[in-house]
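To illustrate the input format used throughout this study, we show a single complete record. The first block contains the structure-token representation of the backbone; no residue identities are included at this stage. The design step must infer an amino acid for every position from geometry alone.
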């Protein structure tokens, strides 16, 4: 088959005296909001183009169908099909999720706390039958354990419907709340529910209060965020004393409190928003515990304030700011405070006894690893649940007694088809960047992999929003490693791998540092013999897809292939369109090219779509989702169309659009594996290992 050729319908616009001509703007559906809710309303001409691209991709990948099937089979064989989470106790019950063999979606279950017959609360697999897409959102039980507020999305557009279910009978009440973000918080009475809804541009902007048994049309507006640059969320303190109304963009936060015992009370402000200042709130006794970057605490500090007077003027430092030690999260229990922090590029858990102030950390030995705090319902407990894994060590779930400082292994990830950690090597190296910085790189490879430049290498990167890509265990990447690949994660600027400064140095006017770091990591790995130039397959998604587009423009000869999942490549046009869901909230991250000529010039200089040039590009696979509200389907579609028109050489360019899903791809765990197998097959194909 010949590759599809998109029609050129120039759209000309001017900004800050600069004329932009966009030949493929027509791929953006004028009714995109409607398409999110009803995909069948997509313009037939656009659908025909996407269908043609999908057919071409299928034809070009036909020679990998047997490989895809083999990859899927081995990836599935590494999954324990009847897996279950460690039950989380709450009062008289313990709650868990589990899968039955062959099921794509989980069961939400509970048992008596000390053991006994299981009650199935939610059977997501049964609900998904006959649907092209189904995602179970929240499943939150009421404080009296009688009701379950659960939500689902059956379009992939992240617009969830909330239902209320009787826990004992499994009967859904008539309550039905449409157009929500999926999460909800119960008040103490077990009859009142708080939730957030999406506006016409798919932004969460209103908090409503629902009383069980009443129609959604009677729900009361509790709080409305009128600034389109801020997103609204709802949460709860670990103590369950307060409902948290959380408003934020990427650099500024504001929190209001509602006493869970008085759900009709007006929200009470903790501290008014202050540009560039973030804070999160938890609670114990008569004080709030606040994680914040106030007063120049770039790597964050912890302060306390009276519940009765929580304003900034009453904040008192509890854990002072320590430059280079980034505090990532905070959880309060009755007698302990737990914080997750990152020091020297690695995470650690620090526990503080509230009565004495004595602290201790939980220690780990591996060179690179991933660490996370587990979810727990209870406040009056000495038990802390956390998860640990490394690139060679499957995930382990521990219960840790904060009083006795003893840990119990509750679960270790099973790999049914077998996994020998001793057959693999995990390392952490540092690649020199051009400006003197060093970029951490996590590596995984088999011990028998030659490090003489002959091995292909998969280089993964993200580098945005301060998100740190953990050096955690993955069963799917073993399919590449077992076929001779070195697997590498470049912890580039834009994440917080080396503290908040690492994030600051990879955003806005310094965004190009992210791209340069990724290229520097690839060049270093080639120089050191882990691979060679032209043998690197780069992989990134979403903002990491922007990274893929940028490095393809900057250093195409470094890469043997690029996989860009839901890639944010049309950065300039998207940031100029303030009707899109994420645009106003994202201006602090990228800059506002509508208001600022400097921001316009910065983004225009790196936006992948706008910087496609007549050069030889490596093979590229771009993957999108029709109902994706985060990175809209037309971004990869426009990018591939422009690459085809502009590039030199005959490198393979493929676009695959999931017509039944959004940002996260297929919803079922096995359907998701098929998508991973497809992308992995592409990597093997372009590396000559297929």
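Output of the design step:
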């Amino acid at each position: 088959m010949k590759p599809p050729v998109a029609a050129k319908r120039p759209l000309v616009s001017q900004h800050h005296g600069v004329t932009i001509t966009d030949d493929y703007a027509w791929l953006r559906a004028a009714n995109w909001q409607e398409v999110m809710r009803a995909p069948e309303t997509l313009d037939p001409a656009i659908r025909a183009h996407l269908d043609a691209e999908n057919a071409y991709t299928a034809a070009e990948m036909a020679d990998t169908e047997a490989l895809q099937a083999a990859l899927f089979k081995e990836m599935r064989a590494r999954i324990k099909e009847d897996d279950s989470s460690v039950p989380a106790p709450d009062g008289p019950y313990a709650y868990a999720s589990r899968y039955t063999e062959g099921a794509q979606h989980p069961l939400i279950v509970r048992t008596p706390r000390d053991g006994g017959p299981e009650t199935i609360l939610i059977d997501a697999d049964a609900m998904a039958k006959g649907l092209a897409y189904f995602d179970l959102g929240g499943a939150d039980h009421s404080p009296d354990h009688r009701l379950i507020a659960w939500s689902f999305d059956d379009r992939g557009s992240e617009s969830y419907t909330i239902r209320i279910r009787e826990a004992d009978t499994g009967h859904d009440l008539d309550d039905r709340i449409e157009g929500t973000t999926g999460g909800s918080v119960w008040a103490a009475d077990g009859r009142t529910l708080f939730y957030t809804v999406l506006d016409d541009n798919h932004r969460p902007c209103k908090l409503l209060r629902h009383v069980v048994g009443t129609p959604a049309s009677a729900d009361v507006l509790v709080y409305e965020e009128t600034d389109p640059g801020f997103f609204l969320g709802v949460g709860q303190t670990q103590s369950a004393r307060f409902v948290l109304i959380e408003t934020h963009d990427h650099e500024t936060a504001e929190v209001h409190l509602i006493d869970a015992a008085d759900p009709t009370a007006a929200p009470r402000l903790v501290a008014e928003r202050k540009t560039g200042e973030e804070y999160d709130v938890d609670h114990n006794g008569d004080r709030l515990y606040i994680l914040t970057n106030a007063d120049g605490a770039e790597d964050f500090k912890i302060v306390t304030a009276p519940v009765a007077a929580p304003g900034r003027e009453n904040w008192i430092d509890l854990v002072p700011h320590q430059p280079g030690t980034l505090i990532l999260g905070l959880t309060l229990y009755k007698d302990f405070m737990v914080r997750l922090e990152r020091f020297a590029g690695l995470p650690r858990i620090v526990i503080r006894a509230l009565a004495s102030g004595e602290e201790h950390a939980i220690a780990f030995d591996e060179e690179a690893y991933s660490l996370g705090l587990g979810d727990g319902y209870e406040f009056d407990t000495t038990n802390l649940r956390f998860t640990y894994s490394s690139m060679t060590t499957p995930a382990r779930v521990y219960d840790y007694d904060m009083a006795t400082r003893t840990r119990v292994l509750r679960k270790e990830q099973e790999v049914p088809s077998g996994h020998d950690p001793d057959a693999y090597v995990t390392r952490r190296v540092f690649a020199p960047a051009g400006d003197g910085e060093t970029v951490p790189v996590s590596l995984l490879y088999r011990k028998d992999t030659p490090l003489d430049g002959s091995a292909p290498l998969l280089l993964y990167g993200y580098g945005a929003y301060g998100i740190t890509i953990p050096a955690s265990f993955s069963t799917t990447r073993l399919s590449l490693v077992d076929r001779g690949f070195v697997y590498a994660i470049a912890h580039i600027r834009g994440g917080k791998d080396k503290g908040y400064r690492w994030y600051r140095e990879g955003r806005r006017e310094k965004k190009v540092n992210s791209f340069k770091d990724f290229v520097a990591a690839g060049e270093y790995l080639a120089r050191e013999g882990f691979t060679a130039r032209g043998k690197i397959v780069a992989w990134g998604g979403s903002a990491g897809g922007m990274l893929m587009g940028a490095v393809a423009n900057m250093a195409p000869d470094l890469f043997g292939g690029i996989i860009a999942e839901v890639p944010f490549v049309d950065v300039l046009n998207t940031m100029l369109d303030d009707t899109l869901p994420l645009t106003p909230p994202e201006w602090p991250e990228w800059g506002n090219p509508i208001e600022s000529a400097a921001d316009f010039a910065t983004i225009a200089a790196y936006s992948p779509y706008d910087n496609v040039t007549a050069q030889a590009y490596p093979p590229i696979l771009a993957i999108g989702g029709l109902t994706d509200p985060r990175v809209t389907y037309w971004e990869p579609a426009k990018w591939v169309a422009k690459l085809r028109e502009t590039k030199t050489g005959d490198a393979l360019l493929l676009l695959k659009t999931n017509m039944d899903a959004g940002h996260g791809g297929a919803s079922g765990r096995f359907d998701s594996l098929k998508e991973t197998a497809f992308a992995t097959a592409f990597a093997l194909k372009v590396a000559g290992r297929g």
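Structural context for interpreting the output: The chain has four domains: 11-76+419-686, 131-276, 283-321, 324-415. The two ends are 21 Å apart (CA to CA).
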